[in-house]
Amino acid sequence: MSIDKESNSLNDRIVYDITKFTHLDYPNHLACIVWFAGCNMRCDYCYNKEIVFAKNGNYSSNDVLDFLNTRVGLIDGVVLSGGEATSYDLVPLCKEIKKLGFKIKLDTNGTNFANLQTLCELDLIDYVALDYKAPAYKYQQITKSTKFNEFSTSLLYLMLCKIDFEVRTTVHPDLLDEDDINFIINDLLSRGYNKKYYLQKFLDTGDNIGNIHLSSKSIDESLLSKELEVVFR
Questions:
Q1: Integer Cα distance of 93 and 19 in angstroms
Q2: Disulfide check for 147: which of 59, 74, 111, 119 has CB 3.0–4.6 Å away?
């Protein structure tokens, strides 16, 4: 199954795995995580190799809904992650999730703007975590993608619409330094972003796409711009 498929049925196996419970991944909510197979990026630091390179999923959307029916009243949110969830038409699944009464958080790299816009306009998602992977001048180097402009469009759209969202960046000091992060902060400020900006520390699981490990360097927080509230995770 191609991850560029324009539409998919609830029976298509597009889900790689389901994490049954998390209190960390959706702010202020108990949730599960639905991991969608495949991704249009190859970020060096990504530790979800199996998900990114998966050609097919192990579960269908109907399998997800069967699981969620057993979690009504036990959790209140569903995180759609990956891989890259917006590689698929999420509308049919999200409509059914909403019928069950769950809130929906979307984790996305923002490069499939049309799908993101559709979900927002149909009021099918409640929160977005947008990955600002790198400044434009390092974007292709780190992500192996040329879709910075598409990401930028998604960021601008989220700035203008009513959906609650956050911007986050995974930081490995050998890939992004303080100047790079400050460049991102200045870009966010220039667009009117005034929320918390989250920096996620690289997690060395011993198996990532770029075969990289913990750096001997660290980010000097004192060198980061104070014009945005920067939160390390």
A1: 17
A2: 111
DSSP 8-state secondary structure symbol assigned to residue 202: P
37: nearest Cα among 65, 15, 8: 15
CB-side exposure of 32: number of CA atoms within 13 Å? 19
Q: What is the spatial distance between Cα 158 and Cα 155, in angstroms, rounded to a whole number?
A: 5
**At residue 163, what are phi and psi to the nearest 5 degrees?**
-65, 130
For residue 33, tell me if it sits in a domain.
Answer: yes
Asked if residue 110 lies in contact with residue 154, where contact means CB atoms within 8 angstroms, the answer is: yes
Q: Would you say residue 182 lies in a domain?
A: yes
Query: Which tens digits make up the pLDDT trace of 147-170?
Result: 999 999 999 999 999 899 999 999
Q: Quote the pTM value.
A: 0.94
CATH value at residue 73? 3.20.20.70
Residue 160 domain boundaries: 13-232
